[in-house]
Amino acid sequence: MPPVVGLAVGHGTGAELAEVFTRVLGVLTRDHPGGVTLIRSPRRYHSYHSLRGEGAGEQVAALTREDTDHYEQFCRSLAARGAGAVFRTAVNAQSLYLVRQRLKAVKVDAFTADDGEALLVRDEAQGFYTGTNRHTPGTVTRTMEFSRETTAEVVSYALERARRRWPDGRTGPVVMAYKFHLLDGVLGAWAEELSARLGVEIQLFQPDTVNRNLITHGLADRTVLIAGNEWADIMHVVLLDRFGGERQENRCTENVYLHPDVRGLTEYQTVHGSADDLAGRDLVNPVATVRAAAAVAEHHAGCPGAVREVERALARVLDRGVATADLGGNYGTAAVVDALLAELGEPVVPGAREPGTVAAALLGEGA
To answer: Do 247 and 174 fall within a single domain?
Structure first.
């Protein structure tokens, strides 16, 4: 039975990047028996900018709820079909974080610097980024929560990922970066409980303390950094630049759902946003999407070595100066992808954009 992969597309450059993902995934899985079944959500999800034309307050809140409910059900339907992965282009963050709260998501990213490695596990399931809004004239009131159960699940998963990444059992410090001073001491108490129960020393720090330590000492080798969104969202791009040697325009990451109904479903996304101003202009940088396709092919579609193969091909393409404007080149999105596919040994036929090895399907609106 072919592997099942989901595809969710938002406004802005979503349609262009969905095409890039489909093309590259098709080429990478061309030798897989039966190919890959790609299930595309029928809904085009809003970006922040596409919502700007819909008013404000309750009007936007209603559309946000529709997007949230639909995407949650789409993820649940994928999990029920045995899908291991979904690629999602950028959509409105408010909808995303409601889904992440409901399905208990964490974002996982690893950094490799000259002096070692680190693993970032970002708690997307609770805190200020999640929650709901109540609108009254001239006021918006946001209600959110932290829970002992969710905190335990996030920390346990972070330690599980660390063991998978470093199977020799040697890890560095386990650091939690949260604004815990605002929570009446309960997050500190939970961290102490988890330290005792899991047999791991967990260091809970305020974000500014973590920043000072990063500036002064860098990251200790094999640091496990568990972070609330209030800090990690801002610092992700800084960590990429300082410790990962990367720009957000080129990077993809994975969001892992911990809710038992969808556990095992991993959502891949680009780190960059929807770039609505570039939509339809063949200008968006495809590198992060290409890397997402490689990760899905290798980890969920039975194509070992796909990530390394794509990285080598990307390096050759970029070394020749074939890049979009944000990387200093003067090539369009499609031209960069064509050059990459040629490096991967795929003959590029002008006008041909859909590889035959991906069987595309559209999930019904009632999903």
So the answer is: yes
Secondary structure percentages of the chain, helix, strand, coil, to 5: 45, 20, 35
Looking up tokens 């072919």 gives 2
Residue 203, strand partner residues: 175
Cα 93 to Cα 101: distance, rounded to the nearest angstrom: 12
Q: What are phi and psi of 228, to 5 degrees?
A: -75, 155
Residue pLDDT, tens place only, 225-240: 999 999 999 998 888 8
Residue holding tokens 């193969």? 309
Distance from C-alpha of 324 to C-alpha of 348, rounded to nearest angstrom? 19
**Can you give the pLDDT at residue 210?**
95
Contact of 229 with 127, CB cutoff 8 Å = yes
Looking up residue 132, the CATH number of its domain turns out to be 3.40.718.10
112 and 98 in a common domain: no
Mean pLDDT confidence for 140-148: 95
pLDDT in tens, 107-136: 999 988 777 899 999 999 999 999 889 989
